[in-house]
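== Polypeptide entry ==
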Amino acid sequence: MNVRADAWVIQWFSNSELLNVFKGRAIYLGMVQFVHPQREDITLAGVLAALADPMRLRIVRSLLDEKDCMSCTAAAPCPGMAKSTLSNHFRILREAGLIQTSKKGVEHRNVVREADINARFPKLLKTILGFSEQA
């Protein structure tokens, strides 16, 4: 079924995916797929760069203290932090391989990939978090 409204064409596919076509370009409107690197693709440089920011370090610490999945809002280091800033911090942590994000309803649930980080770089998280507590 195609519905035409001016220059927009909205097409429903058999599997209920919605595809918008505008001026020859296709835009998929569906569930967000999070990118998580495989364990062997996690790099020391990426982890250290992600943890170099004090806010991201606080996010990781709060996730580790909880020992369970936390929403982005619950793990936020500052209650007044803009959602776009918070989202960017979580994206950087996710792309570095530090956290695993899943979607539960409308909430994004996050957990530290502690086993993967410790397998790649033994005691790295414990050492960094230990030093950051002393500072």
